Amino acid sequence: MLTKPKILIVCGTRPEIIKLAPIYHFLRTQTWCEVQWLHTGQHQEMAEQILACFDITPDIVLSRAGSSLSEFSIGCRQQLDVVMESNTWSAVIVQGDTESAFLGGLSAFYQRIPIAHVEAGLRTYDLTRPFPEEGLRQMLSRITYFHFPPTEGGKNALIKEAIPVKNIYVTGNTVVDAQKWVIKKYNIHKAITSGRNILVTMHRRENWGSDIEEACMAIASLAKTHADLKVIFPVHLNPIVQKSVDPILGGLANVTLTRPFGYLEMQQAIANAWLILTDSGGIQEEAPTFHVPVLVLRKETERPEAVHAGCAKIIGTSGAAIIDEVNALWKDAGLYESMKPSSNPFGDGHASERISEVLKSQLSH
What we know:
This protein has 2 domains: 6-172 and 349-364, 3-Layer(aba) Sandwich (Rossmann fold), CATH 3.40.50.2000; 190-339, Rossmann fold (3-Layer(aba) Sandwich). The protein is built from 15 helices and 12 strands. It has helices spanning 14-28, 45-53, 69-85, 99-110, 133-143, 152-160, 174-186, 210-225, 239-249, 263-272, 281-286, 305-309, 319-331, 333-339, 351-363, and strands spanning 6-11, 34-39, 60-61, 91-95, 115-118, 146-148, 197-201, 230-234, 255-258, 275-278, 294-296, 312-314. Helix 12 (305-309) links the parallel strand 11 (294-296) and strand 12. The protein is globular, with a radius of gyration of 21 Å. The termini are close together. Keywords: Isomerase. Belongs to the UDP-N-acetylglucosamine 2-epimerase family.
């Protein structure tokens, strides 16, 4: 009797869980393989909430040693090695560019287990932006066997780095699969009375300090100019971010500063938004599903597909640029309509099925 391929999903952060959950659920419906979920503990409380949201109970949970990233990395790697050695895994699936993804891939590599990298090929080619993610994802590509870039752009980046074309499979982004899953399960849709809400998120390390402050000054100016504008800003828990945001935006009547949103709250907030200002990569991918334009508060993006499609624009954090771009959309309905995406350029909601088909063809003999 042939043994079914055993697949291990390794992840540890909220964004990874969101993007790997659809793959896990799809593989669970398949008869050709067995799949297990390993949680590294990199994120704990936030991870528990999102795992519950997606009806996932991890098969393996690592214990987190220490609070620093280096302590986590050492303890995680040691425990991962034990897991990798304890079973005959046919493949290890990781996603993105986190410490958990890199450690999961590295541990699998040392055991000669094929690595499947979901969301492969994203690049800024600047190792400092985003840091350390750009370095981690570049290193992960060198040891991966199955590369699953979401778009042709990711595929082209990998080919330029001499990754064999036969190992690259464009799938679409599983974030769209995840959105479709929660939209159906939790009945998320745009509120009729949404109005002109602007959703703002800023958290990236490279924007800490003066960049966030300048952006907030611009948002404050817009809020004072347009009385019917409503700003919703879920503020990151990092004290550095809060110290920049709260003094500038805290006292304005039409600006709501909240704690960070959970995944479902964020999907509802995106659905209700008229416009989004963000430095988040995930929101750049999610907003087109709800037909909401995005102004990207960064100098570059590793997700250019939305920019190419016309539904996102990179504007940086200059106060003048933010004011000018928002006012242009406010005054020009035609310009605004031209930025509303009719479909999501990152995927069609079937990425998980494509990933499963590739793994089935390569692993089940």
